[in-house]
Amino acid sequence: MTALEVAVVGSGPAGIYTAEALIKQTAALTPPRAVRVDVLDRLPTPYGLVRYGVAPDHPSIRSIADYLRNVLEHSDVRFLGGVHLGDDVTREDLLASYDAVVYATGAMRDRRMGIPGEDLPGSYAATDFVNWYCGHPDSEAGAFTLDAESVAVVGVGNVAVDVARILVRDPAELRRTDIPQSVLEALMASKVREVHMIGRRGPAQAKFTTKELRELGELAGVDIVVHPDELDLDGSDPTGQSAQLAGRDRRVRGNLAVIQDWASRAPGAGAERRLAIRFWLRPVAIEGTERLSGLTAERTRLDEQGRVTGTGQVETIPAQMVFRSVGYQSVPLPGVPFDERSYTVPNAEGRVLGPDGAPLPGEYVAGWLKRGPTGVVGTNKSDAAGTVRSLLADLTGEGSAAARPSRTPFGDVLVARGVRPVSYLDWLRVEQAEAELGGSLGRGERVKIGDRAAIEALCRPPAG
Ligand code: NAP
Description:
Blueprint: E1 4-9, H1 13-27, E2 35-40, H2 48-52, H3 62-72, E3 77-80, H4 91-97, E4 100-103, E5 109-110, E6 123-125, H5 126-133, E7 150-154, H6 158-168, H7 181-188, E8 194-198, H8 210-217, E9 222-226, H9 241-248, H10 250-264, E10 273-278, E11 281-288, E12 292-302, E13 308-318, E14 321-324, E15 328-329, E16 347-348, E17 351-353, E18 359-365, H11 368-371, H12 379-396, H13 410-416, H14 424-440, H15 452-459
Helix pairs in contact: 1-12, 5-6, 8-10, 9-10
Bound molecules: NADP nicotinamide-adenine-dinucleotide phosphate.
The site of NADP nicotinamide-adenine-dinucleotide phosphate (NAP) has 25 residues, from α6.
Protein backbone atom coordinates (compact mmCIF):
# COMPACT_ATOMS: atom_id res chain seq x y z
CA MET A 1 0.00 0.00 0.00
CA THR A 2 1.29 3.48 -0.81
CA ALA A 3 2.42 5.77 1.97
CA LEU A 4 -0.09 8.23 3.35
CA GLU A 5 0.99 11.74 2.41
CA VAL A 6 0.14 14.52 4.81
CA ALA A 7 0.94 18.24 4.80
CA VAL A 8 1.13 20.03 8.14
CA VAL A 9 0.94 23.80 7.85
CA GLY A 10 2.95 25.41 10.64
CA SER A 11 6.14 24.13 12.25
CA GLY A 12 5.46 25.32 15.80
CA PRO A 13 4.81 22.86 18.62
CA ALA A 14 1.30 21.97 17.37
CA GLY A 15 2.56 21.22 13.85
CA ILE A 16 5.57 19.20 14.92
CA TYR A 17 3.61 17.24 17.54
CA THR A 18 1.14 16.47 14.73
CA ALA A 19 3.98 15.10 12.58
CA GLU A 20 5.14 13.01 15.54
CA ALA A 21 1.65 11.68 16.20
CA LEU A 22 1.31 10.72 12.52
CA ILE A 23 4.57 8.74 12.67
CA LYS A 24 3.67 7.00 15.92
CA GLN A 25 0.03 6.28 15.24
CA THR A 26 0.55 4.95 11.70
CA ALA A 27 3.28 2.63 13.04
CA ALA A 28 0.84 1.33 15.64
CA LEU A 29 -1.86 0.44 13.07
CA THR A 30 -2.45 -3.23 12.19
CA PRO A 31 -0.85 -3.61 9.75
CA PRO A 32 1.36 -0.52 10.12
CA ARG A 33 0.90 2.11 7.42
CA ALA A 34 3.76 4.09 5.91
CA VAL A 35 3.42 7.86 6.13
CA ARG A 36 5.29 10.84 4.74
CA VAL A 37 4.80 14.20 6.38
CA ASP A 38 5.73 17.59 4.93
CA VAL A 39 5.83 20.33 7.59
CA LEU A 40 5.44 23.74 5.94
CA ASP A 41 6.17 27.11 7.49
CA ARG A 42 5.88 30.64 6.13
CA LEU A 43 9.16 31.40 7.89
CA PRO A 44 12.48 29.92 6.84
CA THR A 45 13.01 28.87 10.46
CA PRO A 46 11.14 26.08 12.26
CA TYR A 47 9.72 25.79 15.83
CA GLY A 48 7.21 28.68 15.88
CA LEU A 49 6.59 29.99 19.39
CA VAL A 50 9.30 27.75 20.86
CA ARG A 51 11.80 29.89 18.94
CA TYR A 52 9.80 33.11 18.75
CA GLY A 53 7.62 33.15 21.85
CA VAL A 54 9.45 31.56 24.75
CA ALA A 55 11.43 34.18 26.66
CA PRO A 56 15.23 33.88 26.35
CA ASP A 57 15.64 33.54 30.12
CA HIS A 58 13.52 30.37 30.10
CA PRO A 59 16.10 27.91 28.79
CA SER A 60 14.33 24.93 30.36
CA ILE A 61 12.36 24.98 27.15
CA ARG A 62 15.54 23.68 25.50
CA SER A 63 14.46 20.11 26.19
CA ILE A 64 11.23 20.75 24.25
CA ALA A 65 13.25 22.20 21.37
CA ASP A 66 15.44 19.08 21.34
CA TYR A 67 12.35 16.91 21.32
CA LEU A 68 10.85 18.82 18.37
CA ARG A 69 14.19 18.65 16.55
CA ASN A 70 14.14 14.84 16.74
CA VAL A 71 10.76 14.82 15.02
CA LEU A 72 11.94 17.10 12.20
CA GLU A 73 14.98 14.85 11.74
CA HIS A 74 12.84 11.72 11.32
CA SER A 75 13.34 10.18 7.87
CA ASP A 76 9.60 10.33 7.08
CA VAL A 77 9.33 14.03 7.94
CA ARG A 78 10.43 16.87 5.67
CA PHE A 79 10.66 20.55 6.62
CA LEU A 80 9.63 23.00 3.89
CA GLY A 81 10.39 26.49 5.20
CA GLY A 82 9.59 29.77 3.50
CA VAL A 83 6.38 28.43 1.95
CA HIS A 84 3.40 30.67 2.67
CA LEU A 85 -0.13 29.29 2.43
CA GLY A 86 -1.75 32.23 0.68
CA ASP A 87 1.13 34.01 -1.05
CA ASP A 88 2.97 30.96 -2.40
CA VAL A 89 0.51 28.08 -2.48
CA THR A 90 -3.22 27.69 -2.03
CA ARG A 91 -5.39 25.41 0.02
CA GLU A 92 -6.46 23.75 -3.26
CA ASP A 93 -2.79 23.09 -4.14
CA LEU A 94 -2.33 21.30 -0.83
CA LEU A 95 -5.51 19.27 -1.20
CA ALA A 96 -4.47 18.23 -4.71
CA SER A 97 -1.01 17.12 -3.52
CA TYR A 98 -1.71 15.38 -0.22
CA ASP A 99 -4.09 12.83 1.25
CA ALA A 100 -4.71 15.20 4.14
CA VAL A 101 -3.76 18.67 5.33
CA VAL A 102 -3.47 19.68 8.99
CA TYR A 103 -3.57 23.41 9.71
CA ALA A 104 -1.48 24.31 12.77
CA THR A 105 -0.63 27.97 12.31
CA GLY A 106 -1.26 29.01 15.90
CA ALA A 107 -2.38 32.46 16.94
CA MET A 108 -0.05 35.18 15.81
CA ARG A 109 -2.14 38.33 16.12
CA ASP A 110 -2.62 40.35 19.28
CA ARG A 111 -6.04 41.15 20.67
CA ARG A 112 -6.97 44.79 21.10
CA MET A 113 -8.51 46.56 24.08
CA GLY A 114 -10.74 48.92 22.08
CA ILE A 115 -10.01 52.03 24.19
CA PRO A 116 -9.06 55.58 23.16
CA GLY A 117 -5.32 56.16 22.71
CA GLU A 118 -4.53 52.55 21.84
CA ASP A 119 -2.73 53.65 18.68
CA LEU A 120 -0.67 56.43 20.28
CA PRO A 121 3.09 56.23 19.79
CA GLY A 122 4.39 54.28 22.77
CA SER A 123 1.39 51.92 22.91
CA TYR A 124 2.34 48.46 21.70
CA ALA A 125 1.09 44.92 21.44
CA ALA A 126 2.98 42.62 23.78
CA THR A 127 3.28 40.22 20.82
CA ASP A 128 5.41 42.83 18.98
CA PHE A 129 7.67 43.16 22.01
CA VAL A 130 7.93 39.37 22.36
CA ASN A 131 8.75 39.06 18.65
CA TRP A 132 11.44 41.70 19.07
CA TYR A 133 13.22 40.19 22.05
CA CYS A 134 12.97 36.72 20.49
CA GLY A 135 14.55 37.95 17.23
CA HIS A 136 11.55 37.26 15.00
CA PRO A 137 12.42 38.02 11.37
CA ASP A 138 9.22 40.13 11.04
CA SER A 139 10.57 42.47 13.74
CA GLU A 140 13.13 45.20 13.12
CA ALA A 141 16.20 45.24 15.39
CA GLY A 142 15.47 48.89 16.29
CA ALA A 143 11.73 48.40 16.85
CA PHE A 144 11.98 49.32 20.56
CA THR A 145 13.89 52.06 22.35
CA LEU A 146 13.31 51.68 26.05
CA ASP A 147 13.49 55.34 26.99
CA ALA A 148 10.39 55.25 29.23
CA GLU A 149 10.91 55.36 33.00
CA SER A 150 7.52 53.94 33.75
CA VAL A 151 5.73 51.24 31.73
CA ALA A 152 2.24 49.76 32.05
CA VAL A 153 1.64 46.15 31.03
CA VAL A 154 -2.06 45.38 30.67
CA GLY A 155 -3.11 41.80 31.43
CA VAL A 156 -2.14 39.27 34.07
CA GLY A 157 -1.36 36.18 31.97
CA ASN A 158 1.99 34.49 31.42
CA VAL A 159 2.83 36.71 28.44
CA ALA A 160 2.41 39.80 30.66
CA VAL A 161 4.68 38.12 33.22
CA ASP A 162 7.31 37.46 30.51
CA VAL A 163 7.14 41.06 29.27
CA ALA A 164 7.32 42.52 32.79
CA ARG A 165 10.23 40.24 33.72
CA ILE A 166 12.27 41.12 30.63
CA LEU A 167 11.66 44.82 31.38
CA VAL A 168 12.77 44.70 35.03
CA ARG A 169 15.44 41.99 34.98
CA ASP A 170 19.05 43.10 35.19
CA PRO A 171 20.03 42.82 31.50
CA ALA A 172 23.50 41.56 32.47
CA GLU A 173 21.74 38.32 33.44
CA LEU A 174 20.59 37.91 29.85
CA ARG A 175 24.11 37.95 28.45
CA ARG A 176 24.45 34.17 28.57
CA THR A 177 21.09 33.61 26.88
CA ASP A 178 20.48 33.52 23.12
CA ILE A 179 18.82 36.97 23.09
CA PRO A 180 19.84 38.88 19.91
CA GLN A 181 22.81 41.16 20.50
CA SER A 182 20.93 44.28 19.36
CA VAL A 183 18.14 43.53 21.86
CA LEU A 184 20.62 42.95 24.67
CA GLU A 185 22.21 46.32 23.91
CA ALA A 186 18.79 48.04 23.90
CA LEU A 187 17.98 46.45 27.28
CA MET A 188 21.38 47.53 28.64
CA ALA A 189 20.48 51.10 27.66
CA SER A 190 16.93 50.81 29.08
CA LYS A 191 15.69 53.67 31.27
CA VAL A 192 12.77 51.62 32.61
CA ARG A 193 12.62 51.78 36.42
CA GLU A 194 8.99 51.04 37.12
CA VAL A 195 6.60 48.52 35.59
CA HIS A 196 2.90 48.29 36.45
CA MET A 197 1.20 45.03 35.57
CA ILE A 198 -2.56 45.51 35.53
CA GLY A 199 -5.37 43.00 35.97
CA ARG A 200 -8.97 43.96 35.30
CA ARG A 201 -10.19 41.38 37.80
CA GLY A 202 -8.78 40.11 41.10
CA PRO A 203 -5.75 38.02 41.97
CA ALA A 204 -7.87 34.85 42.09
CA GLN A 205 -8.95 35.39 38.48
CA ALA A 206 -5.43 36.10 37.17
CA LYS A 207 -4.29 33.74 34.41
CA PHE A 208 -0.59 33.44 35.22
CA THR A 209 0.85 30.21 36.61
CA THR A 210 2.46 30.09 40.04
CA LYS A 211 5.94 29.04 38.90
CA GLU A 212 6.14 32.00 36.48
CA LEU A 213 4.71 34.39 39.07
CA ARG A 214 7.10 33.27 41.81
CA GLU A 215 10.06 33.86 39.50
CA LEU A 216 9.30 37.60 39.53
CA GLY A 217 9.99 37.69 43.27
CA GLU A 218 13.37 36.06 42.76
CA LEU A 219 14.75 38.77 40.47
CA ALA A 220 17.76 40.53 41.93
CA GLY A 221 17.40 44.28 42.46
CA VAL A 222 13.63 44.27 41.85
CA ASP A 223 11.10 45.38 44.44
CA ILE A 224 7.66 43.79 44.02
CA VAL A 225 4.79 45.97 45.14
CA VAL A 226 1.23 44.81 45.73
CA HIS A 227 -1.55 46.84 47.27
CA PRO A 228 -3.02 44.98 50.27
CA ASP A 229 -6.49 46.48 49.67
CA GLU A 230 -6.51 44.91 46.18
CA LEU A 231 -6.00 41.46 47.73
CA ASP A 232 -9.18 41.52 49.77
CA LEU A 233 -10.96 38.56 48.15
CA ASP A 234 -14.43 39.52 49.35
CA GLY A 235 -14.21 43.31 49.18
CA SER A 236 -14.63 43.46 45.39
CA ASP A 237 -16.45 40.20 45.00
CA PRO A 238 -19.89 39.87 46.61
CA THR A 239 -20.43 36.43 45.05
CA GLY A 240 -17.51 34.79 46.82
CA GLN A 241 -16.25 33.59 43.43
CA SER A 242 -12.64 34.36 44.36
CA ALA A 243 -12.77 32.26 47.54
CA GLN A 244 -14.41 29.42 45.62
CA LEU A 245 -11.72 29.54 42.95
CA ALA A 246 -9.05 29.45 45.62
CA GLY A 247 -10.77 26.50 47.25
CA ARG A 248 -10.87 24.30 44.19
CA ASP A 249 -7.85 25.35 42.08
CA ARG A 250 -4.31 24.66 43.26
CA ARG A 251 -2.87 27.21 40.80
CA VAL A 252 -5.10 29.97 42.22
CA ARG A 253 -4.17 29.01 45.79
CA GLY A 254 -0.48 29.06 44.84
CA ASN A 255 -0.79 32.45 43.16
CA LEU A 256 -2.59 33.93 46.17
CA ALA A 257 0.03 32.61 48.59
CA VAL A 258 2.83 34.19 46.53
CA ILE A 259 1.03 37.53 46.23
CA GLN A 260 0.06 37.63 49.91
CA ASP A 261 3.64 36.94 50.86
CA TRP A 262 4.76 39.93 48.79
CA ALA A 263 2.07 42.11 50.38
CA SER A 264 3.33 41.26 53.85
CA ARG A 265 6.92 42.24 53.12
CA ALA A 266 8.38 45.64 53.85
CA PRO A 267 9.35 47.56 50.67
CA GLY A 268 12.95 46.78 49.65
CA ALA A 269 15.31 49.68 50.15
CA GLY A 270 17.37 50.85 47.22
CA ALA A 271 16.03 48.39 44.64
CA GLU A 272 17.03 49.34 41.08
CA ARG A 273 13.61 48.63 39.66
CA ARG A 274 10.08 48.28 40.90
CA LEU A 275 7.32 45.99 39.66
CA ALA A 276 3.82 46.86 40.86
CA ILE A 277 1.19 44.16 40.37
CA ARG A 278 -2.23 45.74 40.39
CA PHE A 279 -5.73 44.27 40.39
CA TRP A 280 -9.34 45.39 39.90
CA LEU A 281 -8.35 48.03 37.35
CA ARG A 282 -9.92 48.14 33.88
CA PRO A 283 -8.08 50.32 31.34
CA VAL A 284 -10.36 52.99 29.90
CA ALA A 285 -7.94 55.27 28.04
CA ILE A 286 -4.32 55.69 27.10
CA GLU A 287 -3.38 59.31 27.69
CA GLY A 288 -1.06 61.57 25.74
CA THR A 289 -0.74 63.58 22.57
CA GLU A 290 2.62 63.36 20.83
CA ARG A 291 3.95 61.10 23.53
CA LEU A 292 2.18 58.77 25.83
CA SER A 293 1.80 60.01 29.39
CA GLY A 294 -0.30 57.50 31.25
CA LEU A 295 -2.93 54.81 31.42
CA THR A 296 -6.28 55.65 32.94
CA ALA A 297 -8.08 52.74 34.54
CA GLU A 298 -11.39 52.37 36.31
CA ARG A 299 -11.60 50.43 39.53
CA THR A 300 -13.74 47.34 39.10
CA ARG A 301 -15.60 44.76 41.14
CA LEU A 302 -17.59 41.67 40.34
CA ASP A 303 -21.37 42.07 40.13
CA GLU A 304 -23.91 39.63 41.54
CA GLN A 305 -23.51 37.45 38.44
CA GLY A 306 -19.73 37.35 38.87
CA ARG A 307 -19.11 39.64 35.87
CA VAL A 308 -16.58 42.44 36.01
CA THR A 309 -18.17 45.86 36.35
CA GLY A 310 -16.87 49.43 36.79
CA THR A 311 -17.23 51.43 40.02
CA GLY A 312 -16.77 54.84 38.39
CA GLN A 313 -13.63 55.51 40.39
CA VAL A 314 -10.65 56.15 38.08
CA GLU A 315 -6.90 56.33 38.48
CA THR A 316 -4.21 57.40 36.02
CA ILE A 317 -0.97 55.47 36.20
CA PRO A 318 1.92 57.51 34.83
CA ALA A 319 3.55 55.62 31.96
CA GLN A 320 5.41 56.53 28.81
CA MET A 321 4.95 53.10 27.28
CA VAL A 322 2.01 50.69 27.40
CA PHE A 323 2.06 47.05 26.38
CA ARG A 324 -1.27 45.37 25.90
CA SER A 325 -0.90 41.73 26.80
CA VAL A 326 -4.52 40.72 26.60
CA GLY A 327 -4.19 37.49 24.61
CA TYR A 328 -3.42 36.23 21.14
CA GLN A 329 -5.78 35.64 18.22
CA SER A 330 -5.55 33.30 15.26
CA VAL A 331 -5.74 34.74 11.77
CA PRO A 332 -7.90 33.14 9.07
CA LEU A 333 -6.14 31.09 6.40
CA PRO A 334 -7.21 31.82 2.82
CA GLY A 335 -10.07 29.54 1.83
CA VAL A 336 -10.19 27.71 5.18
CA PRO A 337 -13.38 28.09 7.28
CA PHE A 338 -12.93 30.44 10.25
CA ASP A 339 -15.16 31.38 13.16
CA GLU A 340 -14.84 35.15 13.67
CA ARG A 341 -16.31 34.92 17.17
CA SER A 342 -13.97 32.32 18.64
CA TYR A 343 -11.07 33.06 16.27
CA THR A 344 -10.63 29.36 15.62
CA VAL A 345 -11.27 26.99 12.73
CA PRO A 346 -14.62 25.28 13.35
CA ASN A 347 -13.88 21.63 13.97
CA ALA A 348 -15.09 18.41 15.52
CA GLU A 349 -12.21 16.57 17.20
CA GLY A 350 -9.83 18.24 14.75
CA ARG A 351 -11.94 17.63 11.59
CA VAL A 352 -12.47 20.97 9.85
CA LEU A 353 -16.18 21.68 9.48
CA GLY A 354 -17.64 23.36 6.39
CA PRO A 355 -20.39 26.01 6.45
CA ASP A 356 -23.04 23.26 6.66
CA GLY A 357 -21.39 21.81 9.76
CA ALA A 358 -20.18 18.68 7.94
CA PRO A 359 -16.49 17.69 8.00
CA LEU A 360 -14.49 18.73 4.93
CA PRO A 361 -12.68 15.66 3.55
CA GLY A 362 -8.93 15.70 4.09
CA GLU A 363 -8.81 18.89 6.21
CA TYR A 364 -7.83 18.96 9.88
CA VAL A 365 -6.70 21.48 12.48
CA ALA A 366 -4.49 21.32 15.58
CA GLY A 367 -3.16 23.57 18.34
CA TRP A 368 -4.22 27.14 19.08
CA LEU A 369 -5.98 27.44 15.70
CA LYS A 370 -8.18 24.53 16.83
CA ARG A 371 -8.88 25.40 20.48
CA GLY A 372 -7.74 29.02 21.03
CA PRO A 373 -4.60 30.36 22.71
CA THR A 374 -4.59 28.37 25.93
CA GLY A 375 -2.33 25.95 27.75
CA VAL A 376 1.40 25.41 27.81
CA VAL A 377 3.59 24.11 24.96
CA GLY A 378 3.04 20.48 26.04
CA THR A 379 -0.77 20.87 25.86
CA ASN A 380 -0.39 20.75 22.09
CA LYS A 381 0.94 17.21 22.21
CA SER A 382 -2.30 15.58 23.34
CA ASP A 383 -4.25 18.06 21.21
CA ALA A 384 -2.31 17.00 18.09
CA ALA A 385 -2.65 13.31 18.96
CA GLY A 386 -6.44 13.78 19.06
CA THR A 387 -6.51 15.38 15.62
CA VAL A 388 -4.34 12.60 14.18
CA ARG A 389 -6.68 9.95 15.65
CA SER A 390 -9.54 11.56 13.71
CA LEU A 391 -7.42 11.80 10.56
CA LEU A 392 -6.37 8.15 10.65
CA ALA A 393 -9.88 6.96 11.48
CA ASP A 394 -11.07 8.75 8.33
CA LEU A 395 -8.20 7.77 6.03
CA THR A 396 -7.30 4.29 7.17
CA GLY A 397 -10.31 3.12 9.17
CA GLU A 398 -13.12 0.88 8.05
CA GLY A 399 -15.06 2.40 5.20
CA SER A 400 -12.23 4.76 4.20
CA ALA A 401 -11.74 5.06 0.45
CA ALA A 402 -9.41 2.31 -0.74
CA ALA A 403 -8.62 3.90 -4.11
CA ARG A 404 -6.32 6.86 -3.89
CA PRO A 405 -6.88 9.60 -6.44
CA SER A 406 -3.78 10.64 -8.37
CA ARG A 407 -1.91 13.45 -6.69
CA THR A 408 0.07 16.37 -8.08
CA PRO A 409 3.58 16.13 -6.59
CA PHE A 410 3.96 19.13 -4.30
CA GLY A 411 7.49 19.68 -5.59
CA ASP A 412 5.98 20.37 -9.04
CA VAL A 413 3.61 22.95 -7.54
CA LEU A 414 6.50 24.75 -5.84
CA VAL A 415 8.53 24.78 -9.06
CA ALA A 416 5.55 26.11 -11.01
CA ARG A 417 5.12 28.92 -8.44
CA GLY A 418 8.83 29.73 -8.41
CA VAL A 419 9.13 28.85 -4.71
CA ARG A 420 12.40 27.42 -3.48
CA PRO A 421 11.69 26.01 -0.03
CA VAL A 422 14.17 26.07 2.82
CA SER A 423 15.10 22.52 3.77
CA TYR A 424 16.03 21.29 7.23
CA LEU A 425 19.69 21.16 6.15
CA ASP A 426 19.45 24.77 4.92
CA TRP A 427 18.07 25.76 8.33
CA LEU A 428 20.97 24.04 10.10
CA ARG A 429 23.24 26.69 8.58
CA VAL A 430 21.38 29.28 10.68
CA GLU A 431 21.90 27.17 13.80
CA GLN A 432 25.57 26.87 12.94
CA ALA A 433 25.93 30.62 12.38
CA GLU A 434 24.15 31.33 15.68
CA ALA A 435 26.55 29.03 17.53
CA GLU A 436 29.50 30.81 15.90
CA LEU A 437 28.05 34.20 16.82
CA GLY A 438 27.64 33.11 20.46
CA GLY A 439 31.31 32.10 20.48
CA SER A 440 32.62 35.22 18.76
CA LEU A 441 30.67 37.51 21.13
CA GLY A 442 31.83 35.47 24.11
CA ARG A 443 28.21 35.06 25.14
CA GLY A 444 27.77 31.31 25.25
CA GLU A 445 26.35 28.47 23.21
CA ARG A 446 24.31 30.50 20.77
CA VAL A 447 23.09 34.01 19.97
CA LYS A 448 20.02 34.39 17.80
CA ILE A 449 20.17 36.04 14.41
CA GLY A 450 16.98 38.05 13.96
CA ASP A 451 17.68 39.96 10.80
CA ARG A 452 15.52 38.58 7.98
CA ALA A 453 18.05 39.31 5.23
CA ALA A 454 20.80 37.56 7.20
CA ILE A 455 18.56 34.53 7.81
CA GLU A 456 17.55 34.41 4.14
CA ALA A 457 21.19 34.65 3.03
CA LEU A 458 22.11 31.74 5.29
CA CYS A 459 19.12 29.60 4.32
CA ARG A 460 19.09 30.32 0.63
CA PRO A 461 22.60 31.10 -0.52
CA PRO A 462 22.79 31.95 -4.23
CA ALA A 463 22.59 28.72 -6.29
CA GLY A 464 25.72 27.47 -8.09
P1 NAP B 1 -4.02 34.81 28.83
O1 NAP B 1 -3.45 33.80 29.73
O2 NAP B 1 -5.35 34.51 28.22
O3 NAP B 1 -4.10 36.21 29.65
C1 NAP B 1 -4.70 37.33 29.07
C2 NAP B 1 -4.90 38.39 30.14
O4 NAP B 1 -5.41 39.56 29.51
C3 NAP B 1 -5.91 38.01 31.23
O5 NAP B 1 -5.46 38.50 32.45
C4 NAP B 1 -7.18 38.76 30.78
O6 NAP B 1 -8.05 39.09 31.81
C5 NAP B 1 -6.56 40.02 30.23
N1 NAP B 1 -7.42 40.75 29.32
C6 NAP B 1 -8.08 40.28 28.23
N2 NAP B 1 -8.76 41.29 27.63
C7 NAP B 1 -8.54 42.38 28.37
C8 NAP B 1 -8.96 43.74 28.26
N3 NAP B 1 -9.74 44.14 27.27
N4 NAP B 1 -8.53 44.62 29.20
C9 NAP B 1 -7.74 44.22 30.22
N5 NAP B 1 -7.30 42.95 30.37
C10 NAP B 1 -7.70 42.05 29.46
O7 NAP B 1 -3.09 35.12 27.58
P2 NAP B 1 -1.48 35.23 27.42
O8 NAP B 1 -0.84 35.81 28.59
O9 NAP B 1 -1.33 35.90 26.09
O10 NAP B 1 -1.03 33.73 27.28
C11 NAP B 1 -1.46 32.88 26.20
C12 NAP B 1 -1.13 31.43 26.52
O11 NAP B 1 0.28 31.23 26.44
C13 NAP B 1 -1.55 31.01 27.92
O12 NAP B 1 -2.04 29.70 27.89
C14 NAP B 1 -0.25 31.09 28.69
O13 NAP B 1 -0.20 30.27 29.85
C15 NAP B 1 0.74 30.61 27.63
N6 NAP B 1 2.12 31.07 27.96
C16 NAP B 1 2.83 30.29 28.80
C17 NAP B 1 4.09 30.71 29.19
C18 NAP B 1 4.87 29.85 30.15
O14 NAP B 1 4.47 28.72 30.41
N7 NAP B 1 5.97 30.32 30.68
C19 NAP B 1 4.63 31.91 28.74
C20 NAP B 1 3.87 32.69 27.88
C21 NAP B 1 2.59 32.27 27.50
P3 NAP B 1 -9.45 38.32 32.00
O15 NAP B 1 -9.10 37.00 32.59
O16 NAP B 1 -10.23 39.20 32.89
O17 NAP B 1 -10.07 38.16 30.63
